[in-house]
């Protein structure tokens, strides 16, 4: 019985890890489809290499910073023990959490697409996943530095972020904003003859959105980390928020395929935080607002702020993440049909902290890299396209 | 020997070929081109940004014909390609000084 | 122990829901690859928006009609209770069954592709999923109106449709037929200079078929709904029918990629009904017949009946569904190596009822919409393509 | 409790089967993206038809040769019993192992792409999966012919190949080599004006690699076959080897998308054998070496050996498989942080045996088919492309 | 009536169109072509194999103009298309013997 | 100055370029076209429906040459492009009245 429970726990969290690993393919294709044809290969290679660097960074450093266990260095034989104890559960838990950590560079990637150098970006990935992300992750999910205690004593409840509206998406989105600002807009995007480019392939973009959407159920549900903690509520709230996001994007975005396929993602980003406490009807509203928020904020970012965020990762992960964390404080309350145990004040506090740390951390990392090795392709390389300039091959061949 | 170059609406290609076929003109070379003229393109929209697609897809037909059939061929093309709507296209006739069939080396009218 | 069983039940049915959700991406890509290039975006947006509308329709109305629980309205606090009781199992069960319900518009979509208006189609989706589908679903799977009792008393066994050869596929296929007839053929498809169009992208079509095939194992196996009811037999019968479908399509369809990639789907549609009772060898035969039936019936529909069913959803879901329900009555008998408990008469009765209700229900819904808001694009819009006409963007950009 | 364990076992191995089934889509798209545009359809149809023929071959013959149970013929009522006993566990075990067997033709397919006839290749598939593969599989995984006993008595440990570095990948890769040699290079590949062709679509190639990578976690982890035997270690070792492969390919392959996307596959091939005994740090090294080996060996095969292995399946599966089997003997030892119980000598012996049987078996099958019905398209057909020559349709239509 | 055929760098298309627009020449037919000349192509690389792409993507513009505007049009194109870098392209002028607007049957200058 | 327009089989492009290269003609403009003529297309098939693809992919080469090299160039193209099979294609020679190199403004023979 105990063995069975342990084994099923391993299976449970492994399924989560597999689903979130698959999401990385989703990130890749969302970017492939959105960028111009001459940058498709770069999108693909970047995501895959980033994933590898993230794993190493988190294995040796990041996981230790967040949870105190520096697995890769096998301190106190932690790695050796984890290999055989409890069917290797602790190893798979690392795997699962690593797939979250690796989402950070995958999110950033979509914002800085089409103009960033390759190896400097890998370097940034290393620092983000080794230091910036786990610093905040540990505060919120591992009680580090007494931050949660402080929030709880102030507001009566800790900062509630079940599956990472802020810890993952918010942090990713706000790091991306810092990176985008330091990198600058693509040549020709703004200015007197400035213009936007239509996506190279809507089917690939849609494929990416679908993979992300499906994998997200692992992201959210398996955040329970143990099978006996599984909550059908989390699954259905994710569904409802996803549906809300699609509906808002369909109607507010006037059937625009770019909006419609980001709709579910907006809803899912927003539901992460409160998926274990809000009511499915609340989740539907959270998703509707998130979908609408994305449509509005994307246009606002592009046209008013003139921030050249190629995939719209700041509105998507950064802003919908913030909305999600706040919404957990609202719809999680019993008054609104939630399961309670959340405080709006705590949500505000945790969110501000996360956003600030992410933006500052991201800014520092990218500023250092910018001023040392540089992060931007030359004008000629950008014009030629990252595929030829960096990878020396085009995405497809004429037939 | 004359070269007839006709710019037409894409969906009229089959009609034009049929019309030329009827007067025994079967050889021709066709390519996809973008036309600019009085007929205007359209506007696309993606995530709130407008994209003006200011050209129209057109088909360019090149047919080499001997002097005698020229008028007949022009007539055939005109009839078959016309819709009466703006953007029906143009026909240009240019002189050919030499014509060769690569396979046989035949030249002039025999080369067609 | 009880908690573990409950938790694993939640996980089990959730995995089913995730896999069937993924199938919706399969529906989308099967359509993307089959339609002309100018209608690819529309295929993608339609499937996603339909999914969202379906969820809402089923949450508030359809599920209640089928199972008596109007979750969305939280009558008697059903929703509140479901949130925390039994780890939220009832919520995930809804999720799982919703992915089946949403298959109805996804099936219809492939038949009416390239010429239907957008919002009227969403409206049809709403009515189909809120009313038509659950009406019959409830009769068969929830014993509503004593229909199953009547069949049982007449034929000695109730209508056996384990995973929905008729309940889902048959109903979807026959609704689609009604819709297609009301909509009419695409411009230029028939008539003196009428012709067929080759598929825009066989790789995308194949991707769709693969995703559907893989997800189908969730569709069938998780129809047990509880882990202790899992049957390896269902999985292997699905495999065998899939294989039979591929083989028949390969040989009878002469290696035609369109047939070969519909082969597994034909087999899988047909095996749904009897996958829990037939013998794997029976399943192989069921698949072989289904694959052959699809090849033959597709050509017959297109050339003799002149029904412009773009993806061939009526032969695929409608006819192979009927075959599957009947086959369950044949190969399910112990005489033919099955586990028994089925009656051919009951299968005929249930099938006729399902087909009739679906065709009539579908006809009424589409006829009402046709005569009120209209369901068909104008000639010019159709010529221009649904992508530009409805979504104002093309699927891919030149490079 | 017993029922629960059995049920979860069925679920466990079924999830493995589903994931590995999905890998076949990965094989298909890896090939679609790598071949020239005129051979894309053929890649897709081949993989699907091969899968169907493999299932039949393994169901009736191969599984019996490996494990003594000729399911398809229902000898001693084995099939009938399996239908209901232990929730059908034995049936799903067959399904799981079949997906491994079917990997053999899928591997070969990538090597012989763009020039092989269709039906003769299906015939080869039949013999490979009915006879060649299960012959060795049974020796290693079922103790047939006392081979493992002999190795154990000689080297103190049996040949250790947990998830098939040799049993599946090595065998597939070396059969492919035989097939490629018998088939000869593509027209125009070598000789005075010989040249290589760039891949038709890097996004499709990447999609294939992603699907393979994700599915591989089912391939490896579910090789435990029973949930209580699940090892988190296997999952994390797979991850680490995958990461090592990506890193080596990124740096040694200079960001080449073809190398980068084969990197994870190289690492995963190599880790199969020892994933249950090596240390995650060992796994990282195994992956790094595998990634580097692939980059080097691919160029060596193409340029020095002039073996026209289109996807590089011999370096990938054949050579990385060999490396993996040997590496299990090295890094599995307790001295290097492994769990022990392995012998380098045994690994060498088992590997040599596997490679030899595969090469010889493959050679015999393809030589027989070559000399009887022929295996190669005519020059004209090859020039025209397999899509038009065999399937009479092109992969995509102009828009 | 003359046909101006200009082979230019792709990113100069908008500039050339603007320049022609200013002298009231709005009709033209454009196609994508591959250019070979002094400007060299580039080398691609895939899994250790080199691919020489020896052509360059160019745009071919065909504009029919009446004799009077010819020089002005040539001037406009030259100015707008020049970057001073190798590969800027060529302009060829050829005679047109007949010009017809399909829609109306007008010919000569009226057809433009 | 003459414009040679040759319609050839696609896989003959490299040979033709080599042949022209040998007589020091390196500049040319190439495009993909669809040819209709005596050589017939093929039939495709999808789910029981036939698709007649009645054109053949061809390559159009445009080379401007000065009068002296014309014959040599024609000779070179003919030899390199011929397979003796139907569909080898045609060569047309047309007059060029003016030739300009955009980069330098050079004209006539200097512009090539
Ligand atoms: N001066 C020109 N030179 C070359 N092509 C032209 C010219 N004017 C028009 N065309 C071609 O003819 C097409 C149709 O011309 P347009 O002015 O739109 O309509 P219409 O043919 O009815 O006058 C254009 O799209 C373009 O391809
Ligand atoms: N003799 C020629 N005939 C036809 N087109 C030519 C000829 N020479 C050059 N071109 C076209 O002009 C383009 C530019 O020529 P190139 O020699 O590269 O540079 P430049 O125009 O600066 O002299 C070529 O890419 C080709 O398309
Ligand atoms: N009258 C014509 N005008 C323009 N192009 C032609 C003409 N006749 C043939 N062609 C081109 O030449 C190609 C070859 O012609 P075809 O009659 O098939 O064979 P052959 O060149 O051996 O006589 C055609 O595909 C077409 O592109």
How would you characterize this protein structure?
The complex is a heterohexamer, with 3 copies of chain A (399 residues) and 3 copies of chain B (112 residues). By secondary structure, chain A is mainly α. Chain A has a single domain, classed as Ammonium transporter AmtB like domains (Ammonium transporter fold, Orthogonal Bundle), CATH 1.10.3430. In chain A, helix 1 runs parallel beside helix 4. Chain A is globular, with a radius of gyration of 20 Å. The N and C termini of chain A lie far apart (59 Å). The model of chain A has no long low-confidence stretch (mean pLDDT 97). Chain B is an alpha+beta fold and 112 residues long. Chain B has a single domain, classed as 2-Layer Sandwich (Alpha-Beta Plaits). Helix content of chain B is 22%, strand content 41%. In chain B, the strands form 2 sheets. Chain B has a 4-stranded antiparallel β-sheet with strand order 2-5-1-6, covered by helices on one side. A two-stranded antiparallel sheet of chain B has the order 3-4. The longest helix of chain B is centred in the middle third of the chain and has 15 residues. The relative contact order of chain B is 0.31. Chains A and C meet through helix 1, helix 9, helix 10, helix 11 and helix 12 of A and helix 1, helix 2, helix 3 and helix 4 of C. The structure holds adenosine-5'-diphosphate (ADP) (3 copies).
Give a nutshell description of this structure:
Chain A is mostly helical and about 400 residues long. Chain A has helices at about 1-35, 40-65, 80-85, 90-100, 105-110, 120-140, 145-155, 165-185, 200-220, 230-250, 255-270, 280-305, 315-330, 345-370, 380-385, 385-390. Chain A has one domain: Ammonium transporter AmtB like domains (Ammonium transporter fold).
What's the arrangement of secondary structure elements?
The complex is a heterohexamer, with three copies of chain A (399 residues) and three copies of chain B (112 residues).
Chain A: H1 2-34, H2 40-67, H3 78-84, H4 89-101, H5 103-111, H6 118-141, H7 147-155, H8 165-183, H9 202-221, H10 232-252, H11 257-271, H12 280-305, H13 313-331, H14 344-372, H15 379-384, H16 386-391
Helix pairs in contact in A: 1-2, 1-4, 1-5, 1-9, 2-4, 2-5, 2-6, 5-8, 6-8, 6-14, 7-14, 8-13, 8-14, 9-10, 9-11, 10-11, 10-12, 11-12, 11-13, 12-13, 13-14
Chain B: E1 2-8, H1 13-22, E2 28-36, E3 42-46, E4 49-53, E5 56-65, H2 67-81, E6 90-95, E7 98-101
Antiparallel strand pairs in B: 1-5, 1-6, 2-5, 3-4
Helix pairs in contact in B: 1-2
The complex binds adenosine-5'-diphosphate (ADP) (3 copies).
């Amino acid at each position: 019985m105990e063995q069975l429970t342990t084994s099923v726990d391993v299976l449970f969290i492994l399924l989560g890890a597999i689903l979130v690993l698959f999401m990385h393919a989703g990130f890749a294709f969302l970017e492939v489809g959105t960028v111009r044809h001459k940058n498709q290969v770069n999108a693909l290679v970047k995501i895959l290499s980033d994933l590898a660097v993230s794993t190493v960074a988190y294995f040796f450093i990041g996981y230790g910073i967040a949870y105190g266990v520096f697995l890769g260095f096998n301190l106190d034989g932690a790695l050796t023990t984890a290999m055989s104890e409890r069917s290797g559960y602790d190893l798979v838990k690392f795997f699962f959490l690593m797939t979250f950590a690796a989402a950070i560079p995958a999110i950033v990637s979509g914002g800085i697409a089409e103009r960033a150098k390759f190896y400097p970006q890998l370097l940034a990935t290393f620092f983000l996943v080794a230091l910036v992300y786990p610093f905040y992750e540990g505060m919120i999910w591992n009680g580090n530095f007494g931050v949660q205690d402080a929030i709880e004593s102030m507001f009566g409840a800790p900062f509630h972020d079940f599956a990472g509206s802020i810890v993952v998406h918010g942090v990713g989105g706000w790091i991306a904003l810092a990176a985008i600002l330091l990198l600058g807009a693509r040549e020709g995007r703004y200015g007197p003859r400035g213009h936007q480019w239509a996506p190279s392939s809507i089917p690939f973009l849609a494929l990416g959105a679908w993979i992300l959407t499906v994998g997200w159920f692992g992201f959210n549900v398996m955040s329970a980390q143990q099978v006996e903690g599984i909550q059908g509520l989390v699954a259905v709230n994710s569904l409802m928020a996803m549906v809300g996001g699609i509906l808002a994007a369909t109607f507010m975005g006037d059937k625009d395929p770019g909006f419609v396929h980001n709709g579910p993602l907006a809803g899912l980003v927003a539901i992460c935080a409160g998926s274990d406490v809000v009511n499915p009807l609340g989740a539907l509203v959270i998703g509707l607002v998130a979908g609408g928020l994305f449509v509005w904020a994307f246009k606002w970012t592009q046209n008013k702020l003139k921030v050249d965020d190629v995939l719209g990762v700041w509105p998507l992960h950064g802003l919908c993440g913030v909305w999600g964390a706040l919404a957990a404080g609202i719809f999680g309350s019993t008054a609104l049909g939630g399961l309670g145990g959340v405080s709006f004040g705590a949500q505000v506090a945790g969110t501000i902290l996360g956003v600030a740390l992410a933006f500052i951390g991201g800014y520092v990392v990218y500023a250092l890299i910018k001023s040392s090795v540089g992060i931007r392709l030359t004008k000629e390389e950008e014009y030629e396209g990252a595929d030829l300039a960096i990878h020396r091959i085009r995405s497809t061949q004429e037939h | 020997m004359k070269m007839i170059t006709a710019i037409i609406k894409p969906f009229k290609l089959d009609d034009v070929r049929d019309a030329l076929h009827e007067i025994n003109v079967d050889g021709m070379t066709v390519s996809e081109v973008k036309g600019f003229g009085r007929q205007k393109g359209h506007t696309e929209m993606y995530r709130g940004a407008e994209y003006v697609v200011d050209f129209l897809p057109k088909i360019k037909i090149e047919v080499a014909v001997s002097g005698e059939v020229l008028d007949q061929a022009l007539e055939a093309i005109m009839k078959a390609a016309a819709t009466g709507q703006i953007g029906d296209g143009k026909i240009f006739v240019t002189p050919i000084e030499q014509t060769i069939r690569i396979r046989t080396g035949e030249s002039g009218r025999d080369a067609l």
